[in-house]
């Protein structure tokens, strides 16, 4: 009976975490996170999560300059090296 309640509680918490993660980030939170990243280093390296959050996701009332590089050895890009 206790394990059944623990399983139900764990399932509830998992659903709650997924619902919370699906909520869009507010503009103030996004700008604050970008400022924190820029204080650490002047060029922010984008991964897929950062790309979706800061570039693709609304609301976004700011502009970004994105420089794509091809660091893969198979591409052999002389400018990117």
From TrEMBL:
Membrane topology: Multi-pass membrane protein
Subcellular compartments: Endoplasmic reticulum membrane
UniProt superkingdom: Eukaryota
The organism of origin for this protein: Ancylostoma duodenale
Any one Gene Ontology BP term: protein N-linked glycosylation via asparagine
Family: Belongs to the OST3/OST6 family.
Lineage: Eukaryota, Metazoa, Ecdysozoa, Nematoda, Chromadorea
Entry coiled-coil feature ranges: none
Biological role: Subunit of the oligosaccharyl transferase (OST) complex that catalyzes the initial transfer of a defined glycan (Glc(3)Man(9)GlcNAc(2) in eukaryotes) from the lipid carrier dolichol-pyrophosphate to an asparagine residue within an Asn-X-Ser/Thr consensus motif in nascent polypeptide chains, the first step in protein N-glycosylation. N-glycosylation occurs cotranslationally and the complex associates with the Sec61 complex at the channel-forming translocon complex that mediates protein translocation across the endoplasmic reticulum (ER). All subunits are required for a maximal enzyme activity.
Gene Ontology annotations for the cellular component aspect, listed alphabetically: oligosaccharyltransferase complex
Annotated protein name in UniProt: Uncharacterized protein
Signal peptide: 1-21
Keyword entries, A-Z: Endoplasmic reticulum, Membrane, Signal, Transmembrane, Transmembrane helix
């Amino acid at each position: 009976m206790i394990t059944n309640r623990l399983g139900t509680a764990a399932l509830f918490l998992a659903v709650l975490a997924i619902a919370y993660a699906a909520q869009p980030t507010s503009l103030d939170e996004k700008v604050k996170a970008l400022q924190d990243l820029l204080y650490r280093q002047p060029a922010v390296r984008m991964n897929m999560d950062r790309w979706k959050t800061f570039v693709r996701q609304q609301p976004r009332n700011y502009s970004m300059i994105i420089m794509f590089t091809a660091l893969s050895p198979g591409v052999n890009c002389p400018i990117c090296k």
